[in-house]
Automatic annotation (TrEMBL):
Keywords: Transferase. GO terms for molecular function: GMP kinase activity. PROSITE patterns: GUANYLATE_KINASE_2, LRR. Residues 36-64, 559-585, 595-614, 641-759 are annotated as: Disordered. This is Guanylate kinase-like domain-containing protein. Residues 750-759 have a biased composition (Polar residues). It comes from Anguilla anguilla. Residues 691-705 have a biased composition (Low complexity). SUPFAM superfamilies: L domain-like, P-loop containing nucleoside triphosphate hydrolases. GO terms for cellular component: cytosol. Pfam families: Guanylate_kin, LRR_9.
Length: 759
């Protein structure tokens, strides 16, 4: 049996015929003409000629139906061709009972009418889509359910109460906007419902949704105050709760598939509420417009920081620059924090009167010596610093920092820290008194300029201890300390040490344990960042190792050491783990100076005399007196016998205008030894890779009139001064093959008022 559909250019229904329930096509044994059912009627020509149309009383007529049918195609059974859709919008219809006979309709649209009864839908078993919006319907699903009904639109009607829809198992979309519903119920059995809209109703509570497989839920314009009873709707992807009275976002934390959230025009006042949706990985769109939270300063940056997965906030795209700015503001990387800290202190210091500090050296090649012990909380760095300064008190003094925390048991004000209030601490910041500050565990810590100057006035090197943030900040300054990292490798021992102190909370101990990895990672990812790394699981062994490292720095060795070299302890890490990054810089600097010297044009006698005069005036301005040995720059020149004699007599060993000597070919660093600086200074104790050494026979570490203290050590004379022995090139840094040689420590460091001219 074959089916021959009518050609597209032939009319399906005569012009004077109104089509009713269906249109059938002819079969091979039947006439090819369209079969007209009994419900199809004709009008008399007399009625048409009279021109008196039927008065419009809101009742649907077959003429109107015939003009609104469309979508001709196979019926649901597939045995015939029918019109499957009917659309009659905006006709002020009140009675559509005529549609009882249209059993093959699959789509019915009757919006913007005055319909109150939909009982005719009960006779449409194949109906899939129903749009009855903008009518006067008061009964909720007042018809026998079509078996396959999927989408229903009852918006803008007069419904006020729901009923059970257990028979509508195929229902996928339901729109009930602009009605008068007060609660949600009867939807629990709609196992296929994925889109539900109940905007602009009178709903006060979120309940009755059960475990519906919803993907989109719209509850805009209701009276909801609390988000609840939706944590089991784990399939939800889009949620619209705008124009309600919601104050908290609690209740959304389990919606892990949520991608869009609209909370416009609510009562959210605290950006911290975003913590409830912080862990939603797929959340891309958030709208908090017209909420009190938008009045907060930097609201947008705070929201972007807390919800970094967002791509659209308040209907504006979230740019990559905003995400970077948000992170830098609320959780900046340590490098950013250090840079800001240095910039802040530099600005405040520039606002103060500029003076010449006691730590200022006459030569750029010899920075003020400092030793920094870095490590996590309670690793023992403060105790080691005190012991080191006590044993090597002729070389080091403890730099006392400031803090806003209270003293722990056994700590003394002015010995361990300067304890100040937070207000005093910030006043000191604004006064430009700090070099670096950090905030750790809710307290402020800072290294003041005066702490270093007190040590420098004694002619000693400053020894301080600090956390990782302090190291990063101090590296931004012009100081060039030696950095020794003290890191615990046994987490259990370190945790026991924290607990034995009985000073820290559980959160503080967990934070301290987690920060150990940050130190290890920084040292691993940036070789050479620390000059030495010492394990501090055993403080006794750590101190022995630290003393050995300091001896290497100072160019000292134990008596009877033989050739003057000693192996580094096993628990200090140098060599491959800490690359000697300064070797290459020294070579580059020497090569650059050599090239510049050869390329520079020769200076005339007038230029030389003028330069000498300017330097002479500069020295006089620094000291307020005629220039003496105290102000002679530490040039890298070989110290001859005559030069040494001249220096002791208070004369200049070399003219200021003489150019620096060319570096020795095929060497890693200069081997020339500078003249010993005058009494009253400790410049060069921990100079970074200057290729300098202690001067023999100067009585290092003694006060005038006191016997020399050697701590069981002897000073190594400069290799360049030993006849027949040439000093091997050294970078002055642990880990190199050659022994580090450092600037000398002259005698008489602790004089109260250094005399610029030797006696």
């Amino acid at each position: 049996m074959s089916v021959s559909p009518p050609s597209s250019h032939m009319p399906v229904v005569p012009a004077d015929v109104t089509l009713g329930a269906q249109v059938s096509v002819g079969y091979s044994h039947a006439p090819s003409a369209l079969q007209v059912p009994a419900s199809i009627t004709t009008r008399g020509s007399e009625e048409e000629e009279e021109g008196n149309p039927k008065e419009d009383d809101g009742e649907l007529t077959e003429e109107e139906v015939s003009g609104c049918l469309h979508d001709l195609g196979p019926s649901a059974t597939g045995l015939e061709y029918t019109y499957r859709a009917l659309s009659i919008p905006g006709r002020n219809l009140t009675d559509i009972s005529l549609l009882h006979n249209y059993v093959h309709l699959q789509r019915l649209e009757v919006p913007h009418n005055k319909i109150k009864d939909l009982s005719c839908v009960s006779h449409m078993p194949y109906l899939l889509f129903l749009d009855a919006s903008h009518n006067e319907i008061s009964q909720f699903f007042g018809f026998h359910p079509p078996k396959n009904l999927k989408e229903v639109d009852f918006s803008y009607n007069q419904m006020s109460e729901m009923k059970a829809l257990s028979a509508y198992s195929s229902l996928c979309r339901l729109n009930l906007d602009h009605n008068s519903f007060r609660e949600i119920r009867g939807l629990e059995m709609c196992s296929s419902l994925t889109h539900l809209s109940l905007a602009h109703n009178r709903i006060y509570q979120l309940k009755g949704l059960g475990k519906l497989p919803l993907r989109e839920l719209c509850l805009r314009g209701n009276h909801i105050r609390k988000i609840e009873n939706i944590e089991k709707i784990w399939t939800l992807q889009t949620l619209d709760l705008s124009s309600n009275k919601i104050q908290s976002l609690s209740g959304l934390q389990n919606l892990h598939l949520l991608g869009s959230l609209n909370l416009e025009n609510n009562m959210v006042s605290d950006i911290k509420e975003a913590k409830h949706i912080h862990d939603l990985p797929l959340l891309r769109e958030l709208n908090l417009q017209r909420n009190p939270v938008q009045d907060e300063a930097d609201y947008r940056l705070a929201a972007v920081f807390l919800l970094q997965q967002l791509s659209l906030l308040d209907q504006r795209d979230v740019m990559a620059e905003e995400k970077v700015s948000a992170v830098n503001k609320y959780d900046p990387p340590p490098e950013v924090t250090a840079a800001r800290d240095h910039m802040m202190h530099a600005v405040f210091q520039l606002r103060q009167p500029q003076v010449i500090f006691d730590s200022t050296l006459p030569s750029l090649n010899t920075p003020y010596p400092m030793l920094v012990l870095a490590g996590p909380q309670a690793c023992g760095k403060r105790e080691l610093a005190h012991r080191l300064c006590h044993e090597f008190n002729q070389f080091f003094a403890y730099g006392i920092c400031h803090t806003t925390r209270g003293p722990y048991f056994g700590e003394e004000d002015g010995s361990d820290y300067h304890y100040v209030s937070e207000e005093q601490f910030h006043d000191m910041i604004r006064a430009g008194k700090f070099i670096q500050t950090i905030q750790y565990a809710g307290h402020w810590y800072g290294l003041s300029r005066e702490a270093i100057e007190e040590v420098a006035r004694e002619g000693l090197a400053c020894c301080v201890h600090m956390e990782l943030e302090g190291v990063l900040s101090l590296k931004s300054t012009y100081f060039e300390p030696r950095y020794v990292l003290l890191v615990p490798t046994d987490q259990e021992k370190y945790g026991n040490r924290l607990r034995r102190r009985a000073l820290y909370t559980r959160e503080q101990m967990d934070s301290a344990l987690s920060r150990v990895d940050a130190y290890v990672r920084l040292n691993r990812e940036h070789p050479g960042y620390f000059d030495n790394v010492i394990t501090c699981d055993d403080t006794v062994e750590a101190y022995k190792t630290l003393c050995q490292v300091v001896r290497e720095y100072l160019g000292l060795e134990e008596q009877g050491g033989g050739d003057g070299t000693s192996a580094m302890p096993e628990n200090t890490f140098t060599g491959d783990s800490l690359k000697d990054t300064r070797e290459q810089s020294d070579l580059s600097r020497n090569l650059y100076g050599k090239v510049q010297q050869r390329l520079a044009p020769p200076r005339s006698p007038a230029e030389v005399a003028s330069q000498q005069k300017r330097r002479q005036l500069f020295r006089e301005a620094l000291t307020g007196k005629s220039p003496g040995a105290y102000t002679q720059p530490l040039n890298r020149v070989s110290l001859s016998a005559s030069g040494s004699t001249a220096l002791q007599a208070g004369q200049d060993p070399a003219p200021l205008s003489s150019p620096p000597p060319e570096p020795i070919e095929n060497s890693r660093s200069p081997t020339a030894v500078p003249p010993c600086p005058p009494s009253g200074t400790a410049w060069g104790v921990l100079g970074k890779g200057r290729g300098q050494t202690s001067r023999p026979g100067t009585g290092t570490g003694t006060r005038p009139g006191q016997p020399e203290r050697s701590h069981g050590l002897r000073l190594l004379p400069p290799a360049g001064l030993i006849p027949g022995v040439q000093s091997e090139a050294a970078s002055g840094r642990p880990g190199s093959n050659a022994k580090p040689v450092l600037p000398p420590i002259p005698s008489g460091r602790k004089t109260a008022t250094p005399n610029p001219t030797p006696p």
